[in-house]
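Let us work through a complete example step by step.
Step 1: write down the sequence.
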Amino acid sequence: MAVPRRSNAQSMRRLMEMKKEKEKKEEEYENRIPTLAEMCSSSFATTLFRNKIRWRKLTDLAFELRYFSDELKLPKPIQKILLESMENVLAEAKRWDAKHLEMFVEPSKSRRRALPKSELLRTFYSELIWKRDRKQVGDHPVYDFWLTMMATINKDRLFFGATRRFPNQKVAQCFLFAIKNGYYQLVEYIWNQLTDEHREFLGMIEWRNMCYRARDGQAISFLCKHLCELNPVGTCLNAWQPFFDSFQHLIHDEKSDHLERNQYRRKFIFLLKHCCQTLRTRLVKHSHFRLICDAFRYNEQEIFSLLLENMSSEDIASAREYIDRIFDRNKTRTGDRLRRTLIRRQQTVQ
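Step 2: predict the structure and record it as tokens.
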């Protein structure tokens, strides 16, 4: 007996409802209150970081914290949670250093430092004094941008170059610097002053490198959303290699320790979380559903479930054909469990 098809209006209504539900879930996740366990682990990791950092390098502290949880003689699940919390604190400290040290003008000829300037910034931040001489800060892209814009009378047309084929060089340098180092407010301000042609031109230059770094979530979300509106195909092609690279390291680097594998896992989840829905759908479908098929083939249960949550019913139905072929060639107990998870998800979203 033939199954009656849904009308186009019903299908569109169903897609709109699914989209609204997903946006509502994302909004609830962003505004949710942390659980008591998350607050305790975060507080413990932050206190431990403050007590142990003192005058030491971040790399030395990261090496010590690998084995610190073993000394506490705690259960393995609690050790795992504490390790993840400490890794998050170290990653945030490293990101903050890398972002803010770029605002300091580095002399062309300087003596060899006893410490990297990122360590000096973190240690002596309260003692630093900004120099206001234009000759000393004019070579920095951000200072050069603001000083030139303030000296320009007609800011909208002449400075941002709305009538030019290519954007103003000083605007381009400042915009790329802001994207590279995660200055979201500056990125948003310059973006609103540019034309669509200049936006796509400048955004695509740094988009792939930005995905490789996977550091500034707010800037990535902003740029991904607007680039997909301008050129979704090019945005997906440039993001695919960094996305797939972190995935491959995650499933193939068996000799790497827990800290390194967790780093690639966090990077993969970070990219999947902060890319827009358009890019997320294209990445999941790329190369005949390569990501979810490899996650099924190598029994990556967490990644497999994460990808399923970001797939529509049509994508799940198409991916199931490829997964059934893999399962027919190699029937395992883990593969059967993952396949049943996919079937339940398919029945749920329908």
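Step 3: interpret the result. The chain has a mean pLDDT of 74.
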